[in-house]
Amino acid sequence: HSVVRNALFCLETAANEKEIHVYTKALMAYTFALAGKEEKRKALLGLLEKEAVKKDGSVHWQRPGKEPEVDLPYFRYRAPSAEVEMTAYALLAHLTTQPAPSQEELSFASLIAKWITGQQNPNGGFSSTQ
Prior knowledge:
The protein is mainly alpha-helical. The protein has helices at 2-15, 22-35, 38-51, 81-95, 103-117; strands at residues 53-55, 58-60. The model has no long low-confidence stretch (mean pLDDT 87).
């Protein structure tokens, strides 16, 4: 459909910009995965991996310039909703590929899933509204 084709062209043009916010990269990676644009998906995931926070056997993304987390006894830090959302989009982008994700992608995706599950509140939900 021409509207979808034009929208994808617009996104492909935007993906070539030098300065793209990390949230936008994650969202675009998932969009290109759904559209079957494998090269764009992989390129954006490569950029995202360079910005990933790898800590305690898990992987996630955070906003640039964010204050570091404070380790306090008896307090478990939960990330803001935007960070949960962008990390979830990155996870979806890793898992949405044809053919099925490689073993390497699944291993990396499991590290992302580990971080996301750690963000659940006591009721099993998340701070995100998505």
